[in-house]
Amino acid sequence: MTHVVTDNCRGCRYTDCVASCPVACFHVNEVRVYIDPAVCIDCSACIPACPVHAIFEEFDLADDQQHWIRINAEAAQRYPVIRTRLAPLDGADARRQQLGL
Amino acid sequence: MSIPGTEGQPLRVAIVGSGPGGFYAAEALLESGLQVEVDLIERLPVPFGLVRFGVAPDHAKLKSVTAVFTQIAEDPRLRFFGNVELGRDVSVRQLGALYHAVIVATGAAGDRRLGIAGEHLPGVHAAGDFVGWYNGRPECADIQFDLDQEVAVVIGQGNVAIDVCRILASPIDALRRTDIAAHALDALARSRVREIHLVGRRGPVQAKFTPKELRELGALPGWQPRVDPGALVLNDASQAELAMPGFVHAPRNLDILRGFAQAPVEDGRRPLHLHFHRAPVALSGRSRIERIELEAQVLSGEAGAQSATPTGERLSLPAGLVLRSVGYRGTPLPGLPFDLVRGALPHRDGRIVDTGGTVLRGWYATGWIKRGPTGVIGTNRADSVDTVAGLLADLAQLDTLKAGRAGLLAQLSADRRKVIDFAGWRAIAQAEAERGRAGGKPAEKFVRVDDMLEAAVVAGAPRSWERA
C-alpha cells in the first residue's frame, strides 16, 4: 500500500503535505507533487493536510483514478525530493475555488 | 553581544523528549542554516518515544520511521542524552540557565479516566497501559492483564482503541514475528478472549480512527466486525459534517462500517461488536469487573460541534476485561505552567506562556504536550517546524552566553549520572536484535531500565560520567 497524489494538486501545489511527511517521500515539479511509494510509510498525515483533497490511500482510489498509482511511482523517480513547504503556485486559490473546495 | 546562531556563538538548544515531536524539532534546527548545538534529552535509555512504545508491533512500516530519526541523530551537531530526566536529573531552572532555548516534547502519556462507579475494579485498565505492556514499556511491564476472560470491552473511538482490539484479536502467529514484548506474546498466546466490544459515545462520523485502522478490523482471521445498521443512520448535522474539513476521514470510515454492517453474520467467526452512541455509566463485579452498563446517547447541536446526551435507555454487557481509551493527558513538569483542562502546556504559537499569558522567554513546546493527543506521526513534523520557526524568529530576544552541552555534561558527571548517548542506544538495539534472532523476531526489547543500561555498558558504549 501507499498514498497517491491525484489531479487536484496540479496548478495548486500548496505543499502543506510536505511539511507533515515524516519520511520525505514527496517529489516536486513545476506544477505539482508526487509520492514515492517505496518511501511512504502510510501514516496518512498528508491526507487531512491537503487543502484540495488531492491525496488518497491507494486502497481508496476510485476505479477511474487507478492510473495515478503508476504516475506517482514513475514521477517520483524523475523529480527531486521536497522536504519543506513552498509558496503555493500563482492561481492556486483560484483553482481551489474552481474545484469547489 | 552577538545573536546566537552565528559563528563562534552556536544556538544551543535542549529538546526534552525523543519521540517524533522531539526528533522533528531537532531536524528543523539542524536544517535552519544557523550554527546550532542540539541536545536531545530522553528520560529512558532508549529513544523514539511512542514510535517504540505506542505504534503497534504489527505496524512495522510505520515503525520504520525510526530510520529517519536515526539519520537525524547521526548529525554531529546533535547529541543524545538518554537516561536523563527533566525534574529528576536536571531541573527546569538549570536547563533554562544552560541553553538559549528549550523545546519540551514530552508527549501525553497520562490517561483520562471514565469517572464512573467501579472504575477501580481489577480488570479495568487504561488502554495506554495495555499498549505499553505489549510494547515493552518499562512502567507497564509488571501490569497483569487477565486474558482468561472471554469478553473484552474497549472504550474509545480512536486508533489506540482499534489497535488494542486488533492485538486482542490477532492470530498469535501474526504477532510472533513482530517485536512485541515476550511477556505479552506469552499471555496473548493463552488468551481466551472470544468476544470484543468497541464502545463509543459518539457516532461513526465523529469517530477519530483512520480508515486504514478501521479496515484492518475486517481482515482479522477468525473474527468478524459487527455493526448495527441503525447506528449508521445519520442525523442532518452528521450528514453535513461528512463534507467538512475536520471530518476528512469520515466518508471512508462510513463506507467501511456500512460494509461491516451489510456482511452476513458468519457463525464460525468471533464477534467484534462496534457500538456507537453508547457511553459507559457503571462498572460492576464482586471482586473484579463482571459487567458494564452502557447508556444510549443522542447527538445534537450544530454540525461540527455536536455533543452526546444520554437518552436513558440502558444496555448491560458481561465484561471480563475493560480497557479505556478516552483521551490522553500530558504530565505537568515541575517549574513550568500547565493547562489542567487541556492536559497540555499553555502556549502561543509554540511559545510556552504562564497563566497570565506572558511568554516564558526561551521555552517552547511541540507535539502532544503542545497540541494535545491528536494527529499521526507526520502531524508532529509540521508541528515541530512551526515551533522552531517561532524560536528562530525570537533569536534576538534570547539570552546570550549559555554553557549548553558542556555545562550539562559537567553537571551530569558531577552527579555521576549514567548518560546513554546514541552509540549506547545502538549497543542496546544490537543486543535487542540478537535476543530477537533466536525467536525469529526483529528484536526482543529489554523491558527493564537496568537491562537497557547494562546492554549499553556491556558493549563498551561511552558513558559521560566515566569520561569526565
Automatic annotation (TrEMBL), chain A:
Q: Does the entry feature the keyword Transferase, yes or no?
A: no
Q: Does the keyword Membrane apply?
A: no
Q: Which InterPro entries does the record match to this protein?
A: 4Fe4S_Fe-S-bd, 4Fe4S_Fe_S_CS, 7Fe_ferredoxin, Fd_C, RnfB_subfamily
Segments forming domain 4Fe-4S ferredoxin-type: 1-30, 31-60
Which residues, if any, are the signal sequence? Answer: none
Gene Ontology molecular-function annotations = 3 iron, 4 sulfur cluster binding; 4 iron, 4 sulfur cluster binding; electron transfer activity; metal ion binding
What the entry lists under Pfam families is as follows:
DUF3470 (PF11953), Fer4 (PF00037)
Q: Which domain of life is it from?
A: Bacteria
Cofactor needs: [4Fe-4S] cluster; [3Fe-4S] cluster
Which keywords does the record carry? 3Fe-4S, 4Fe-4S, Electron transport, Iron, Iron-sulfur, Metal-binding, Repeat, Transport
Known function:
Ferredoxins are iron-sulfur proteins that transfer electrons in a wide variety of metabolic reactions.
**Name of the protein this chain belongs to:** Ferredoxin
UniProtKB/TrEMBL annotation, chain B:
* Swiss-Prot/TrEMBL cofactor(s): FAD
Q: Does the keyword Iron-sulfur apply?
A: no
* Positions with a binding annotation for NADP(+): 157-160, 201-202, 213, 375
User: Which SUPFAM superfamilies does the annotation name?
Assistant: Nucleotide-binding domain
Annotated FAD/NAD(P)-binding domain residues: 12-170
Q: Which InterPro entries match?
A: FAD/NAD-bd_sf, FAD/NAD-binding_dom, Ferredox_Rdtase, Ferredox_Rdtase_adrenod
One of the entry's Gene Ontology molecular-function terms is: oxidoreductase activity
Query: Which keywords does this chain's UniProt record carry?
Result: FAD, Flavoprotein, NADP, Oxidoreductase
Q: Where does FAD bind?
A: 42, 50, 86, 368, 375-377
* Family to which the UniProt record says this protein belongs: Belongs to the ferredoxin--NADP reductase type 1 family.
Q: What is this protein called?
A: NADPH-ferredoxin reductase fprA
